[in-house]
Amino acid sequence: MPHNGWNPHSPDFSCSAKKKLRRKRGGKITGITRWGLLGLTAVLTAVIFTVQPQATDNFKNWPIGYTILLLVVAGLAGVPVGLRRENQLNAFFAPCVYLLGMITSVVLGVYPMVLPTRDPSLLSRCRTPRPQTAG
Predict the structure, then answer these.
(1) Short-list 57, 94, 60, CA closest to 75
(2) Residues 93, 78: contact at Cβ < 8 Å?
(3) What is the reported pLDDT for 125?
(4) C-alpha angle 72/76/81, rounded to 5°?
(5) Which residues, including other chains, have CB under 8 Å from residue 89's CB and lie 6 or more apart?
(6) What DSSP letter does each residue of 23-51 carry, written as one string?
(7) Other C-beta atoms within 10 Å of 74: how many?
(8) Residue 5 DSSP label
(9) What's residue 22's pLDDT?
(10) Burial of 132 by CB count in 10 Å (0-12 exposed, 13-18 middle, 19+ buried)?
(11) Do residues 37 and 76 make contact, with C-beta atoms less than 8 angstroms apart?
(12) pLDDT tens string for the chain (135 positions)?
């Protein structure tokens, strides 16, 4: 195998060159998975608004919900920006912001349903035992 200076197993290959190769590979993987994550985010958002009809009312009643959706977009956009600028800390915290925004927007979308049941008859059935029949 000819030695051209880019063999990662050669002793002449520097640590900074290895880091650059890793970043380049990581950037390719991030670029591919980002589009998949964007698609899954769109599907999940559509499912929430379809399955939970009160989700649109919740976003109308609490306009901060739209700000939460901006957190999701900022989290998605923050990873490639952080990697391009070689700011590893921003590239790490961007997915954290994305997850925070997604979880918060899901909770806001299904808000009354994340609490225990509001129907007292269902609640009393769960808490009171059935009468025992003798026999």
Answers:
(1) 94
(2) yes
(3) 47
(4) 135
(5) 82
(6) HHHHHHHHHHHHHHHHHHHHHHHHHHHHH
(7) 14
(8) S
(9) 74
(10) exposed
(11) yes
(12) 454 555 556 555 566 777 777 777 776 777 788 888 888 888 988 888 888 778 888 888 888 888 888 998 899 888 888 878 888 888 889 999 999 998 998 888 877 666 655 555 554 444 555 666 765
What amino acid occupies position 95?
P
Question: What is the separation of C-alpha 123 from the centre of its chain, rounded to a whole number of angstroms?
Answer: 33
Side chain identity, residue 73: V
Return phi, psi of residue 38, to 5°: -65, -40
User: Distance of CA 25 to CAs 7, 30, 36, 60, 86, Å?
Assistant: 15, 9, 17, 43, 14
Helical spans, DSSP H, in the chain: 15-51, 54-61, 64-84, 88-109, 111-114, 120-127
What's the predicted TM-score (pTM) here?
0.62
Q: Alpha-carbon distance 22 to 29, whole Å?
A: 11
Tokens of 77: 């956009």
CB–CB of 80/31 below 8 Å?
yes
